[in-house]
Amino acid sequence: MKSLMDSKFLFIGNGKGALNLKERINDYDIIVRFNNRPLNKDVGHRTDMMINNDKNIRVLNFLKSPSENSCTHFVKYYNTGSNNVIMKKLAKVKQQLLNRNSIITHLNIPGIFEAKFIEKYSPIPLNKHPTTGLVALLYFTHRNFDCTVIGFDNLTEIACNLRNDHYFENKHRAASSHDWKQEQEIFKLLNVKVLK
Q1: Contact in structure between 111 and 69 (CB atoms under 8 Å)
Q2: Are 15 and 167 contacting, i.e. CB atoms less than 8 angstroms apart?
Q3: Which burial class, exposed, middle or buried, applies to 144 when counting CB atoms under 10 A from its CB (0-12, 13-18, 19+)?
Q4: Can you tell me the distance from the alpha carbon of 95 to that of 98, in angstroms, rounded to the nearest whole number?
């Protein structure tokens, strides 16, 4: 049986390029998605890990119905200690994750990690808060996992369309909060394969 450390990870972003995935999803051992976005036959339904950011309300909804969430959730956050209520909820989420899913233990990956620590793995100092996808790639490439991406259009396409880059919506509301040009430069320096 293949070790998880030797497994092939596929990170499925929310860009329209993810619509080209289809049956190729079966070529990978661990499927990672972001922010609980809607699934369909083109982007596939299989999910082994779900990485959410703490500004996504779906993360807090996990507290209400943990039994409905069969995959692992990792959370990035910035304002540690700034909101005691949120911090307590995140701590509770982390404990539920650790109690429920052994994949975290086997990979030695925290249920909740702080983006400000992960940012230190970037080969270039970041100008703005990184996307959830870049935080994940910085972490997993730092750990030397075999990483492939699809649907990371704003990082892999030269002419990225910031106003319409998600396969499920017509406008990316958070587009202006990231430095896409810099993230593209960082992505080129990471040991990541791109699935077209």
Answers
A1: no
A2: yes
A3: exposed
A4: 5
Rounded CA-CA distance 44/160 in Å is 23
Q: Which domain holds residue 133?
A: 4-194
- Residues facing 52 on adjacent strands: 75
What is the rounded radius of gyration, in angstroms, for the C-alpha atoms of the chain? 16
Task: Kindly provide the residue ranges of all beta strands, DSSP E only, lying in the chain, ordered along the sequence.
Answer: 8-12, 30-34, 49-53, 72-76, 146-150, 192-194
> Which whole number is the average pLDDT over 32-47?
85
Give me 147's structure tokens: 């990483």
What's the CA gap between 11 and 34, in Å, rounded?
Answer: 8
- Reported as a pLDDT band with limits 50, 70 and 90, residue 42 is confident
Q: Which residue has the tokens 């649907």?
A: 151
Q: What is the pTM of this model?
A: 0.81
Structural domains in the chain (count): 1
